[in-house]
């Protein structure tokens, strides 16, 4: 059902904080929203599907999207490119659908500059051990990657003050975060 005033909600936070799990649950409650699919050049994880979790692209194809100005923002993170296709936001908004997207902290800052009405939600870990455990449980990150992601998480947490809302994800209580995100969405619609 089209909305009179569609909104853009951006969820961000450090790697391993639970963003995907939170969005998977939010998706069940907001079936009329568009959930942005980002473009990435990293390898697909074992539980991911191309065109559902991300558009998994070659660096050449990603560069072509940059050259053709098809991305609202992009950046290189952990040796890979990540970007938000403009069409993933413009098309749903044009037909009256609110949008939820998940990007890293630097991407959130760029998008806020371009789209000042976006609602920024930062998911913060209870502590860095929470992220360390989640990254190790994935079983898909090397020790070097885990260390790099933990170092980045520390820096990203310091930037959380730039967000409209900051929610701490208490270990073992993701329901709290999901319900808080839903409250934020409902308050801003």
Molecular structure report:
By secondary structure, this protein is an alpha/beta fold. It is 42% helix and 22% strand. The chain has one domain: Rossmann fold. The strands form two sheets. It has a five-stranded parallel sheet, sandwiched between helices. Strands 4-3-6-5 form a four-stranded mixed sheet. It has seven helices and nine strands, in the order E-H-E-E-E-H-E-E-H-E-H-E-H-H-E-H.
Give the topology.
Blueprint: E1 8-12, H1 19-29, E2 34-35, E3 38-40, E4 54-56, H2 59-67, E5 71-77, E6 80-85, H3 87-94, E7 99-102, H4 105-114, E8 119-125, H5 128-138, H6 143-158, E9 165-169, H7 174-188
Parallel strand pairs: 1-7, 1-8, 2-7, 3-4, 8-9
Antiparallel strand pairs: 3-6, 5-6
Helix pairs in contact: 1-7, 5-6
SSE arrangement, N to C: EHEEEHEEHEHEHHEH
Spans of at least 5 consecutive residues with low confidence: none
- In helices, the fraction of residues equals 40-55%
Q: How large is the count of helical segments? A: 7
CA-based gyration radius? 16 Å
Output the CATH class name.
Answer: Alpha Beta
What CATH architecture would you give? 3-Layer(aba) Sandwich
Sketch the major β-sheet.
5 strands, parallel
CATH topology title: Rossmann fold
Please give the domain count: 1
**What is the assigned CATH homologous superfamily?**
P-loop containing nucleotide triphosphate hydrolases
Q: Give, in spatial order, the strands making up the sheet with the most strands.
A: 2-7-1-8-9
Q: Choose one word for the global shape.
A: globular
Q: Count the beta strands.
A: 9
Overall structural class, as computed from helix and strand content, comes to alpha/beta
Q: End-to-end distance, in Å?
A: 14 Å
User: Beta-sheet strand percentage?
Assistant: 15-25%
Mean of pLDDT: 92
Multimeric status of the protein: single chain
